[in-house]
Amino acid sequence: MIELIPAIDIIEGQCVRLTKGDYNQKTVYRHSPAEVAKEFEALGFQRLHVVDLDGAKSKHIVNTEALREITSATKLKVDFGGGIKTQADIEMAFENGASMVTVGSVAVTQPELFLSWVKHYGAERMILGADVRNGKISINGWKEDSAEELLPFLNKYIEAGVQQVLCTEISKDGTLQGPAIDLYKGIMREYPSLKLIASGGVACIDDIKALEAAGIPAVVFGKAIYEGRINLKDLINELSAKEI
Q1: Cβ–Cβ < 8 Å for 24, 43
Q2: Which ranges constitute the DSSP H helices of the chain?
Q3: What confidence tier does 109 reach under pLDDT thresholds 50, 70, 90?
Q4: Which residue among 9, 52, 173, 207 is the active-site one?
Q5: pLDDT of 241 higher than 60
Q6: Can 89 be counted among the known catalytic residues?
Q7: Are 147 and 131 within 8 A, CB to CB?
Q8: Which of 14, 18, 204, 226 could form a cystine bridge with 29, CB 3.0-4.6 A?
Q9: Annotation marks residue 22 as catalytic
Q10: Rounded to whole angstroms, what are the CA distances from 67 to 101, 108, 152, 186, 230?
Q11: Candidate list 89, 131, 173, 207, residue with the active-site label
Q12: Residues 6+ positions from 226 with CB-CB distance below 8 Å
């Protein structure tokens, strides 16, 4: 079964969602990310994707208190991203309870540094963030587009031992217009053993079922939950999930 990973995006300690990564298109859904995380855990989820949007914009981790509150209040396995630019940022994330970190920008700008982190912490704790816009990798909170094309970018890191990739199609993110299934199918054709985590555009249960039918291992989704488009109990029942 496809792994279901709810998402919490944080700005100023609050649970928010952006549209296409635009900080000017922000909706605050809840004031306490930890309370949201507890609700996810109560439904049976075991993993959570947390993004420090202030960190992504500031180029260093900002919302450590919110992360610590989530990991103190739950037993969820948290993967944390946003603003991780140094080893000190990684240590801070782990010290505040994160199980894994997602790193994107550094993998573009300092590949040797990123690979040293993969070697030091282990591939099971390091997720490669591949945020895509017009076929190119975007960095620094999606404010900049790099010259890196998606598949060559993935290839060099998969060959070096990366096992997990979180791929977000930016044009889909927060739009509730459906995920970029063809993009993910293309990645899986090239790398069938990759733990690919799809992100962006999920609007309904059928979108998740379509990703599962396409052989995508995992999906991150958030706005559809907060907008009431997906009832999590119904999702779990429809996918006949005994474990999430």
Answers
A1: no
A2: 33-42, 53-58, 64-73, 87-95, 105-109, 111-121, 150-159, 181-190, 205-213, 223-226, 232-238
A3: very high
A4: 9
A5: no
A6: no
A7: no
A8: 226
A9: no
A10: 12, 25, 33, 34, 25
A11: 131
A12: 15, 17, 27, 29, 30
